[in-house]
Design goal:
The chain has 661 residues and is mainly beta. The chain contains two helices and 45 strands. The protein has three domains: 272 residues, Galactose-binding domain-like (Jelly Rolls, Sandwich), CATH 2.60.120.260; 156 residues, Sandwich (Immunoglobulin-like); 218 residues, Jelly Rolls. Helix content is 4%, strand content 43%. The strands form eight sheets. Strands 30, 33, 34, 36, 41, 42, 43 and 45 form an eight-stranded antiparallel sheet that branches. The longest helix is centred in the N-terminal third of the chain and has 21 residues. The N terminus is likely disordered.
């Protein structure tokens, strides 16, 4: 809506007006409000290549309840240490959050955490790490690896909402040098698709990231609502120092224009060198077409190779005679014509040699991204490994000739083999892909034990999601994972639904499992109630047609108040309407206990309803249910009520299993 698109600008106008009038009565607080501080030594040790250089350190941020704007991490999505086992991360929000929004349980809006200043107040969110370092003998330049990420990208490029990350080096002999990233600087090579798991892999639910959006991590094209620079090394001539002196290095990240959207900065591998240089690092990963990094696939799939050529030195790598990059498409793959892309230079494919070629320059402290797609041949046996590794040709001594080579490395693996002869085994690993033949399981189960209490539930089989529930946000109703009451696992799923709650869903994607539904069952627990209530379960296909229907209805069947309303379970029959189960069981009602209801296909046109009670066994079975649409096409189960009881009864669901053929 236009309101959403203009919200940020309107809020700013409002705040400016408010502050203008407020100046008549009070003084606007200064940005120099006291920040929360500590020595920051853990951050310093995480990013330094050599801890002996550290003389002193300090850290401050605007989080009044701790120092959540910084973190020492071993991994954050696509970000991994480039030196040692950890790196430092600074943020204008909560560093390392799973999703950079106001709501960690997506979906939420893209507005991030703000601290002392509030959404439009002062001070702006800011985190600062300051190091005092001793420069070793013979060293003249400082280097560090860095990546900048922001939720201000792409919609606020070129505006005053220009979050900035700055590195400042104060050298007694060489003066002050600075290097910065901001939203307007043009460093952004990646959008949300290229940074999965970082917390900035957010997508506008509307598909168009204009203004303030509701976002989640579901990949949409268009819809990417954050971005990042490449991971590059900065330094050399940008940060000259002198041997044996003490210098001060300050890393500072801050909001600009407002406190609403968050940005972050990865920092690692701070080191000294004796000269400015050209240095090429080549990383290669395999993705599916949704942008997720993978190491397994199926025959017939189309995959995407992503190669990032980074010049971590300060001297430029020129477009010299010959190719700067070559990559042979291996056996069992077929190049997808026209799929090769590059952010600069030229890329092509030679069909006769089955080889990708790239020619171009890589400026100092920058990166070039290459991608190309390939289709996996059908008929490959289970466990087939497809191995692919490209080679970079570059100029190591700046004489205009490509004299050095560099193999592409998969940063997510270390095969223990030194392929390039540099005595290291973790910088030259090929991009390996294991092909597997997926076999449909006979059944899959959702036990809810691995879901978050109070949230929705989802379940996967071999990384294929087949089940997900909606989440109820209506006051007075529950449709969520529950702890403390369960059948066999540590959690169950609780429903407490009035008519006012609307319709809630259990959604199925059984096509992910390459199978057809043959039966559906679930354990459930119930008890008596004190007034009329009901719960309907409609089993629907994708065309909104009913496959089957169940009704849990509380009816008055006694004179022992207050709990004299008991539960009757019925199924809907096309010929007879609502037909009760338990017609031959004592009283014909469900008592306080755990039950299991199973619905299974019976021939082409019928379905069976089977009811079991814990400790008793099967208490009823009806084979009269008829089908008018295919049983196999289950898309969802809709939960809803037609009543609004004052005291709403609860049902608990557990050990939910579907059978497949």
């Amino acid at each position: 809506m236009e309101v959403g698109k203009n919200m940020k600008n309107n809020l700013v106008i409002f705040v400016v007006m408010l502050l203008t009038f407020s100046n008549l009565f009070f003084i606007i607080p200064s940005e120099n409000v006291a920040a929360d501080t500590y020595n920051g030594e853990d951050l310093a040790l995480a990013l330094l290549s050599n801890s002996s250089w550290l003389v002193d350190s300090s850290y401050s941020d605007t989080d009044q309840y701790g120092n959540r704007q910084s973190a020492v991490l071993t991994q954050l999505g696509t970000m991994l240490p480039t030196d040692g086992s950890t790196f430092a991360f600074l943020s204008t929000g909560i560093a390392g959050a799973d999703i950079i929004t106001t709501n960690g349980n997506e979906p939420g809006d893209e507005r991030g955490e703000w601290f002392v200043g509030g959404s439009h107040g002062y001070p702006r969110d800011r985190a600062t790490l300051t190091l005092t370092l001793q420069v070793p003998p013979y060293m003249h330049y400082l280097y560090y690896d860095v990546q900048f990420l922001s939720a201000e990208y792409p919609e606020y490029v070129g505006t005053q909402y220009n979050d900035k990350f700055t590195v400042t080096v104060d050298s007694p002999s060489q003066g002050t040098s600075s290097y910065y990233f901001d939203v307007n600087s043009g460093y952004f090579l990646l959008d949300s698709n290229g940074i999965p798991g970082t917390g900035f892999d957010i997508f506008a639910r509307s598909g168009y990231p204009g203004g303030v959006d509701w976002v989640d991590t579901t990949i949409r094209d268009p819809g990417a609502d954050a971005g990042a620079s490449g991971l590059i090394q900065i330094g050399g001539l940008n940060h000259p120092v002198s041997p044996n002196e003490q210098i001060t290095v300050t890393f500072d990240i801050r909001d600009a224009g407002d406190n609403l959207f968050d940005s972050g900065a990865y920092i690692d591998n701070l080191k000294f060198t004796g000269f400015a240089k050209t240095e090429i690092v080549a990383r290669k990963t395999i993705e599916n077409l949704d942008g997720e990094i993978i190491d397994t696939a199926e025959a017939g799939d189309t995959i995407r190779y992503r190669v990032i050529l980074s010049n971590t030195g300060s001297a430029d790598q020129h477009d010299n005679p010959g190719n700067e990059f070559e990559d042979i498409i291996p056996e069992n793959l077929t190049y997808v014509a026209g799929s090769a892309t590059t952010t600069s230079g030229s890329i092509d494919y030679n069909d006769g040699e089955h080889k990708i070629y790239w020619n171009g320059a890589v400026d100092g402290e920058s990166s070039v991204i290459l991608t190309f797609d390939a289709e996996i041949e059908n008929g490959l046996s289970n466990g087939t490994i497809i191995s692919n590794q490209g080679e970079v040709y570059w100029d190591s001594n700046e004489d205009g000739t490509n004299d050095a080579t560099e193999l592409t490395d998969n940063p997510y693996t270390d095969d223990g083999i030194d392929q390039d002869g540099d005595s290291e085994t973790d910088d030259d690993d090929p991009a390996n892909l294991t092909i597997y033949t997926f076999e449909c399981p006979s059944s899959v189960t959702e036990g809810f034990s691995d879901d978050i209490t109070g949230s929705y539930a989802n379940q996967s089989y071999l990384d294929r999601q087949w089940f997900e529930t909606s989440l109820n946000n209506v006051v007075g109703s529950d449709f969520e994972v529950a702890g403390g009451y369960y059948y066999e696992t540590t959690k169950s799923f609780k429903t407490k639904m009035r008519q006012s709650a609307g319709t809630m869903y259990w959604n199925y994607t059984l096509s992910e499992l390459n199978g057809d539904l043959s039966w559906w069952e679930v354990q459930f627990a119930c008890g008596d109630a004190c007034e009329a209530a009901d719960l309907y379960l409609d089993f629907k296909n994708s065309n909104d047609q009913n496959i089957a229907r169940l009704k849990f209805e509380y009816v008055q069947a006694g004179d022992t108040p207050p709990c004299d309303w008991v539960l009757q379970l019925s199924y809907y029959d096309l010929s007879n309407g609502w037909t009760p189960l338990l017609s031959d069981f004592p009283n014909g009602y469900l008592r306080n206990s755990w039950y299991k209801i199973k619905i299974e296909k019976n021939g082409d046109n019928n379905i069976n309803y089977i009811l079991n009670r814990t400790g008793v066994g099967m208490v009823d079975m009806d084979t009269a249910g008829r089908l008018t649409v295919p049983f196999e096409d289950l898309d969802r189960v809709e939960f809803y009520s037609t009543k609004n009881p004052v005291i709403c009864p609860m049902l608990f669901w557990d050990e939910h299993t579907v059978g497949l053929t």
